[in-house]
Specification:
The complex is a heterodimer of chains A (about 600) and B (about 240). With about 600 residues, chain A is mainly alpha-helical. Chain A is about 45% helix and about 5% strand. Chain A has a six-stranded parallel sheet with strand order 3-2-1-4-5-6, sandwiched between helices. In chain A, helix 15 links the parallel strand 1 and strand 2. The longest helix of chain A has about 50 residues. Chain B has about 240 residues and is mostly helical. A two-stranded antiparallel sheet of chain B has the order 1-2. Classes of the chains: A mainly alpha (about 600), B mainly alpha (about 240). At the A-B interface, helix 12, helix 13, helix 15, helix 17 and helix 19 of A face helix 2, helix 4 and helix 7 of B.
Amino acid sequence: MTETHSDITPNPTSPEQPENQEPVTPASAAGPVAPQPADNLPEWITRDLAEKPAGATPEKPGAAGWQNQAMDRDNLGRDETIPDWIKNLEIHDANRDTPIPPDTTPEPVDLSWLAELESLAPEATETIETLPSTPQAEAEPAQLPAWLRQPSVQPDERLNHPAVPEQPTPGESFQPKAVEKTVDQPVESPRLLSDEIPTEPLPAAPTGQAAPTVQAAPTGQAALEGQGIINQPGTGGQNEVQTGPLAGITDLLPPEHAVLQLTKPPSYLTKLQVPEVQQGHIRLLEEMVNSEATPASPRRILLVASQPFLRILIAIILLAVLFGSLLTGFPNPQQPAFSSQTRAVYNAIETAPAGTHVLVAIDYEPGFTDEMEAASTALMSQLISKGIHLVLVSTSPTGPMQAKHLMNTIQAYSHSQLPSEAYINLGFIPGGAAGLASFLQSPRELLPLTVEQNLAWDDPAFSSISGTGDFYLIAILTEKPATARDWVEQLQQRPDKPPVLMILSTQAEPFIRPYYEAADQQVQYLLAGLADGVRYENLAGNSSVASSYWKLYGAGVLAAIGLLIFFSVLNIALMIWAQNQARNKNTRNNKVGL
Amino acid sequence: MNITELIGALVGIVLSLMIFSYLLGDNALFRLAIHIFIGVAAAYAVLFAWYSVLWPQLLRPLLMWDHNPANLVLLLFPVLLSVLLLFKLTGRWSGVGSPVMAYLAGIGAAVAIGGAVFGTIYPQANASVDLFSRASLQSGEPTVSNSWYQWINAGIILIGTLTTLAFFHFNAKPDTAQASVRPAWLEFFAQAGQFFIAITFGVIFAGIYLAAMVAMVERTGAFYTTAKSIINFFASTFIR
């Protein structure tokens, strides 16, 4: 049914098309091929025709020439293997006069445009019947195709054809039916069929695919008039066809040209074609979203007691141990062992010439004052006693107050007034790492005043300092790894970088130790925590803050270790007990079940 | 101990007891002590910023201008930036302060990134590689045990570095069945890295505990010393 094919231009890349179906080129599937002169035929066709025996299969009256050729090739030497569809074709040809029942239930199609089309060309079919009488047809009778000589089908018979032809099953050729229906069209000419219009049966519209629609179907005649294919009435031939084998036929409305003017909206697949990887991602996302909505089952924890009770119990134990140690003097822990690391610091201070300068960064918070002063008091006392001038700065707002407290502590333990030229407190370096970099580049310009608002660099003891390289040593006291890292990183970029001494809290030591233990040391000296403070006091022979804490510290650490071991053993015992309980319960349940 | 020191010690003991009351749970005494500390710290920071930064480094040089126009420009420029920065406090005109914020953020990022690259990443990576250098392995006393120690130490550091990096490698292919999984070899290294990370966290926890223990020791000693001072004070005052 060419009308249907032309009205609804099929999608050549339709996914519903059977895979084993050979692609039909528009030229080959366009129906009957117009006979051409032998001179114009290709060599392979002429050779084929020459080899064709005289008694070959006769041309079927209703089949096109190309189909007869194809059938001839199929019948060469294997007539006994004629496919069933060809036999069916012959049966259909024999029963041509009877209407062809549709293979599928025809869908209701709005064919009003066809009636309108026929109203525009009311004498089309009659003209076909009188075609042999036209002068051009009489002059070239041999060039008329066989299908053109067949009696035409009445328009109402054509209307009985299904709107959508039957979808061929895989492996079954669909061409016979297409040809059969094509040859029924008396108004169709091979040359009028455009190569751009595939004529294979349109497969049924797949689910999820937008069905093509027909728009402005009956407007073809006006378009044909505009293209000059047919003339206007009264301009020479009363809608006479000017080109093609039907040239000279009047009032003929070739339907395919009207179809050329049809437009249809593009069809889009509504089903997403998602690759497998993206499908996996979709599943993961769905799992994540679903798991967010699912409440997590609370972990079953075997509690020895309530958390507040344990907290109070541990506090009481620790306080009891500490106060007991204060009252009884027990235990008396050993002094920390000798450390080459501490010895290196001591030697560096001892060999420092008097009158040199040491930059001291006080960068710890008030909560760590005790530990940091315990670790640094003996060293600072040694520096001051050696006649070394200290320049105190801080990158923390509370640092200047901590520096003042540290100097007071040193003065308290030394039992003497510190000399005025012993140190200057420059205060706070604003700006974080950027301010620190600026200070290391030009300390005089960035901090010209002391905390007491005096001119810092006017003092003769400090007037010789112009840059970072003028310091004998830079000591950094901090409990924050980030602050220590800032100092190391900014000092690393200074070509005149002096040696760096880090006095750290025990919580920051693991982060800074790699800078100290590297082959190319970025930190040359390191003291960490109370233990190194005690070691240094022992080396310097100056028992002060650290030594006063050491006894209680030992008792507290001993109590903490005892608590850790006790509760670890208790947890293991409770876990084993719970497992035994569960095993016994399962055993009893099994016995009851038996 | 005079009366002033005694009052100061008593205030310290009371505040310490208020903090210790958290052992009984969150309560009004604990919150009062926290609020006192926060208020004092904030007030101190404001006053210190004025006396240590704003007045000596921003305003006083402007008031003590030496009538040199070039210096005036240099002095007014930070004042102008500071005033523009104040517009960030307003909702409508906060965009006026955005260039200053961009300037600060850009400078801070440049300094931090430069310091991290040239002060930490490159030197530490170089130090890890140097552990296997001939000079590093032959450092110290040239004994067989020392050489083996250097090799083992370098190997542990190398394995710890690689496996820890593998643990933080989260690139996983989605499994078509259920969840995304890392490759098997990467998962093995990640598990080993988890072991090193656990050791690191244990060391850090121990350090934090020891630092806190020093503070508790100091407070315990302060209790004891203050109590003994109060007893001595009253004994010397009333028993006399």
